Amino acid sequence: MSPTISHKDNSRQRRPGTFNHSLDMKSGPLPPGSWDDDHPELVGGEGDKEALLGDIGASDLSKPPRSCRAELSSILLLLFLYVLQGIPLGLAGSIPLILQSKNVSYTDQAFFSFVFWPFSLKLLWAPLVDAVYFRNFGRRKSWLVPTQYILGFFMIYLSTQVDHLLGSTDGRSPDVVALTVTFFLFEFLAATQDIAVDGWALTMLSRENVGYASTCNSVGQTAGYFLGNVLFLALESADFCNKYLRLQPRPRGIVTLSDFLFFWGTVFLITTTLVALLKKENKEVLVGKEETQGITDTYKLLFSIIKMPAVLTFCLLILTAKVTLYSMYVSIMAFNAKVSDPLIGGTYMTLLNTVSNLGGNWPSTVALWLVDPLTVKECVGASNQNCRTPDAVELCKKLGGSCVTALDGYYVESVICVFIGFGWWFLLGPKLKKLQDEGPSSWKCKRSK
Asked: What are the sequence ranges of the domains in the chain?
């Protein structure tokens, strides 16, 4: 029988319980740290413990908890990897502003918003990242290193083509389709890197410090997004640089998009080389707690996780919560890390993060697409004309009139979203609170023996 422990969370004492969980698809003896359901009488009852992940043996109890300072190097590495992850996100987020400055329509901007969807679809290839790897090189490094190398070379190549795609070299309109395809591949690589880093975070840090993974994710991605978006746009703006950074005005900013891409592509290559050579994965955790049978079994396990009532309810909630709420990111990341199991950490955590990302992306795409249809324009200067279609707009101009916005669709959507937000909170908010009190067994994937 496993030893019993007690855990205190928010000044509420949890009663000790037996702790044997099995999540291994292989037959035969269970690996250390696995979950077992040999004691059904304890499932969902007082036997559940806050320590959701892994088994605690006598050797583990004899080891003192590791402090944050003892794992500072790993925390800093995770932080920097998430900063690098935020750079592609920030750059992709800056493109719509550049397109808007070139008078690109909302419809084209909505089409470009598909660039951000790989982070919402990464669940489709997350089991592949979990199941296929080179043991000698490391489970997470097998994907992290080549992905970041490809990202680095891709950014360097893109630096030679991006001005042409934006129409900056020949004065033509931006090629929105080519930009969307290019940056979609860009974000696909960043999403793959995110899967590897999320899975590595669960085993790189000890169980006492795994909560810092969400902090690294939030702070790192935000910092990277700031560098790739706000800082880049400021340094790229000739007006900003001439007003605040220069003594003599010049017609262009300090940096260009091509310069920025080339610089960070080089940083990606250097950083990846250092990680590949200097950072070793935890071999003991790799063999004991993260062993999976193969790609097929990993996908089967993924669907088993999705069908669990607690996970399904949680996914449905966060799929809609971000329509009006964006301040829940850190708490959701911490909650995801708490209930995810390192045995299939990359896939489990990616499932929850993917649904969360999807809940933030689909409202953005739909909202941008609805701005034009909800906008009311009138033809001023020409009688019996309207501006409902592009042809009608052209006809209005030919007759000497001009289309004037009478009601902006942005404000219409703002009012609608306020009511949607209140409705979501009163109808689904109580379910979210109830999920916080669910026992660990609600998040366990029961395996057939």
From this structure: 71-293
A 10 A CB-CB count for 248 gives: 5
Count of residues in the chain: 449
The answer to whether 112 and 175 are in contact (CB under 8 A) is: no
Does 334 score more than 80 pLDDT? Answer: no
> What does the alpha-carbon distance between residue 286 and residue 6 come to, in Å, rounded to a whole number?
27
**DSSP bridge pairs for 12:** 9
Instruction: Note the pLDDT of residue 188.
Output: 94
Spatial CA neighbour of 91 closest among 143, 148, 159? 159
Distance from C-alpha of 243 to C-alpha of 249, rounded to nearest angstrom: 8
Smallest CA-to-CA distance from 189 within 265, 252, 296, 279 is with 265
DSSP letters, 7-53, are: EEETTEEEPP----B----SSSSPPTT-B--S-GGGTTSTT--S--S
CATH of 71-293, one of 1.10.10.1450, 1.20.1250.20, 1.20.120.140, 3.30.870.10: 1.20.1250.20
Of 403, 411, 287, 352, give the one whose Cα is nearest residue 120.
352
Cα separations (Å) of 315 from 318, 336, 354, 428?
5, 11, 9, 12
Task: Outline where DSSP puts E strands in 297-354.
Answer: none
pTM, to two decimals: 0.60
Amino acid at 25: M
Asked if 33 contacts 70 with a C-beta cutoff of 8 angstroms, the reply is no
In our burial notation (b when 16+ CB lie closer than 10 A, e otherwise), range 63-82 reads eeeeeeeebeebbebbbbbb
Distance of CA 23 to the CA centre of its chain: 25
> Which residues pair with residue 8 across a beta bridge?
13
pLDDT per residue as tens digits for the range 388-412:
888 888 888 888 888 888 888 888 8
The pLDDT mean for the chain works out to: 77
